[in-house]
TrEMBL record:
Superkingdom per UniProt: Bacteria
UniProt GO MF annotations: transferase activity
Name of the protein in question: Glycosyltransferase involved in cell wall bisynthesis
Organism: Persephonella hydrogeniphila
Source lineage: Bacteria, Pseudomonadati, Aquificota, Aquificia, Aquificales
Cited SUPFAM superfamilies: UDP-Glycosyltransferase/glycogen phosphorylase (SSF53756)
One Pfam family matching this protein: Glyco_trans_1_4
């Protein structure tokens, strides 16, 4: 049996790396033959992160390659696993094509991508594509979602089968030394250029806190073009897959601010899971999946306003004991619910179930 994984990115894209690539060794061990064909490759992402925009020629090249893959190569496989959608900002004609030729597919989401369409500023996009993702979900053999918000949308789309599999980490890669060597209290954030804007929402409490206390803010993967908008002296650190855990280990507390918008409600709270995997206490905005991951007063705090952010930072600053206690509690949450060892069997069973149906 052969499976084709149609990811959005290659390993450089965090969503594809954690939603697909980290499961592939287990897929191989199960005896499934597979190929992976990303929509956008590393060259595309490097350009986008560097210049803050797409390379139009490269984008078109990758889109045409994806179309060729669907129309020609998909015949060679028994099952397709699609990340989000086949072609962004295009009607679901290729998903209908797979249905027409009897090719089953699984679709996986870690973001509320339908809001790219139903909340788009252009009326024509809203008109043509507002129900696209519902169609993609309804045509799928299985919808996998990483958050409750996504699961609810899939239910409204009348999907045949829905599975919640959160975005998880391999705990074997998340080991910190017992003692942190930084002299200052480190408030840490990890993300990408596209999520850097959320830090600006807590500009004022971070500026006030770092001015009053011996503290510094580490921003891993932050968009350097936004540095001039920071009201505090943040240390911007370039993201690297091989050093991200080492950087998180330097944190005293991990933060995840968000705005309470439709798209944000679909997020899977992954950076919180990364922090907790390193036994760090967390502070997050009470939006979407954050409300499930963060047990307020147990492994972290949910901050509703600037005063909350400042006060909760103050609690962690003054008490190493509370930091350690919350960190250990958070680690147990990850170990029991958000680790690769917990979800790998569920992921494999979804694939194997559909492949059995194909064989029959």
């Amino acid at each position: 049996m052969r499976v084709l994984f149609l990811t959005k990115y290659d390993r450089l894209g965090a969503s594809s790396r954690y939603r697909t690539f980290q499961y592939l060794p287990f897929v191989k061990e199960s005896g499934i033959d597979f190929d992976v064909k990303p929509l956008f490759n590393e060259e595309y992402l490097v350009y986008k992160y560097k210049y803050g925009r797409e390379n139009k020629f490269l984008t078109l090249e990758r889109l045409f390659k994806r179309i060729k893959t669907v129309l020609i190569d998909s015949w060679k496989y028994d099952l397709l696993v699609i990340e989000k959608e086949l072609i962004p900002y295009f009607p679901p004609v290729f998903e209908y094509y797979l249905k027409l030729i009897g090719k089953p597919y699984i679709v996986d989401y870690d973001d509320a991508v339908w809001h790219n369409y139903d909340n788009h500023r252009k009326k024509i996009i809203r008109l043509i594509l507002k129900n696209k993702i519902k169609t993609v979900m309804k045509l799928a053999s299985v919808v996998i979602g990483g958050s409750e918000y996504i699961i609810e949308y899939a239910e409204n789309a009348e999907s045949k089968r829905i599975e919640k599999i959160p975005t998880v980490i391999d705990l074997r890669k998340y080991n910190c030394a017992d003692e942190k060597k930084e002299e200052k209290f480190v408030i840490g954030w990890i993300g990408s250029p596209s999520t850097s804007k959320y830090i600006l929402r807590i500009n004022e409490p971070l500026a006030r806190f770092t001015k009053r206390y011996n503290a510094v803010v580490h921003l891993v993967g932050f968009d350097k073009r936004l540095k001039s908008k920071l009201l505090f002296d943040g240390k911007i650190i370039e993201w690297n897959e091989h050093t991200e855990v080492d950087e998180i280990c330097k944190f005293d507390v991990g933060i995840m601010p968000l705005e309470d918008g439709p798209f944000e409600r679909g997020k899977c709270g992954f950076k919180l899971i990364q922090y907790m995997g390193c036994k760090k206490p967390v502070i997050a905005s009470p939006v979407g999946e954050n409300n499930i991951i963060v047990k307020h007063g147990f492994n972290g705090y949910l901050a509703e306003n600037s005063e909350d952010w400042f006060n909760y930072l103050e609690i962690f600053y003054h008490s190493c004991e509370i930091r350690q206690k919350f960190g250990k509690n958070g680690f147990e949450v990850v170990k029991n619910f958000y680790s690769l060892d917990v979800t790998k069997d569920s992921y494999l069973s979804v694939l194997l179930d559909i492949l059995k149906e194909v064989k029959i």
